[in-house]
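Retro notes - structure team

What went well: the batch runner handled both jobs without manual restarts.
What didn't: labels got mixed up in the shared folder, which is why I'm recording both outputs here explicitly, each with its sequence directly above its tokens.

Job 1
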Amino acid sequence: MTRAEKAARIVRILNQLYPMPPIPLRHDDPFTLLVAVVLSAQTTDRKVNEVSPILFSRAATPQEMAEMEVEEIRDIIRTVGLAPTKSKNLKALSAQLVSEHAGKVPADFEALEALPGVGHKTASVVMAQAFGVPAFPVDTHIHRLAARWSLSNGKSVEQTERDLKRAFDRSMWNDLHLQIIYFGREHCPARGHDLTRCPICSWAASKKRIREEARRPR
């Protein structure tokens, strides 16, 4: 099977399972999405969705967030991983949005990545989900599955992103990003996974990887 054939089959399966994949983080606009994505680093979406409505009831705009004290933000998001650092970044990025972007989230990769606490993955999520710009953010699920499916060598998230962008048509990137995340959570866990019974791994993974995964402790 060629890479193009494999990619097409993966798309067919994911479209059947997740025809309209929802954005997992609760938000109302680009700013609240940006905040939610910043909060989601090393934290589950469920935890972020528990905390973010409380934060947004206090500050739903960059202006309001910039006026909050770091300690107040930290108290609200204290159950989220890396809360001390994230609270400082949320106040700082909000102030920067006010001072440099008239209180608006810029639809620009470079400008987003210049904000405190915003890396390439976070910027890619915002560009894709808030502005509809084709992007392929790579999280741990996508990085793992791309390697399992022999679509990338798995050596770095940067390489995985490049490989996936080559494998799939640009028009599919935004949906595929979400579909692969959902598939990883629901069908393809990191541990205790029988690749031979997986709807995709069973035929997309190499025989060598199937053997390696089978030998891992469950």
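Job 2
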Amino acid sequence: MEPKEYLDILAVAARLKNTDRHCWITPDRKESVADHSWRIALMAMLLEGEEEFHDVDISKVIRMCLIHDLGEAFTGDIPTFIKNEGNEKTEEKLYDAWVDSFTEPQRTQWKELLMEMNALETREAKLYKAMDKLEALISHNESDINTWLPLEYDLQLTYGQENMKFSPYLIRLRKVIDQWTEDKINEHNNKK
């Protein structure tokens, strides 16, 4: 890969630093897509020592986490409760065209990784997807509940449930996150 192409790819990826997500980190700052991608990669890395994941290629999961939302460099972030099939197809088309512009071997490596991620058949792909969902829940729980939309009270307790089913560890983690959510909602309701 020529240095110019290398820098061009990084320039596109850098857009995610300024691409806001729906969740507020502080009263004056929304989470960026880059914040989210970094943290799900870290979440995956923290699972490397867990016995349940000894057969999972955590390095591959981390790569999946780092690239999973790069399509949003072209479309922006659309919250899951608004995003439709047309939005997903547009994002995928722009992302694929971008990756098609890469030279080899990166083009083939990224295409194969993306196909695996989209198929959600391997433990690596399932783990990346679970981290993606869990990080959104954690971020919302960390944010001020006054920034939540009314639909998020229920969504916080249902979002991504199916993505945890393959893993006893993630099921346990999800229960702790759900309890945190319920405590946060109850505390908020008791203050009314």
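One thing worth noting from job 2: The domain at 3-191 is CATH 1.10.3210.10 (Hypothetical protein af1432).
We'll revisit the folder naming next retro.
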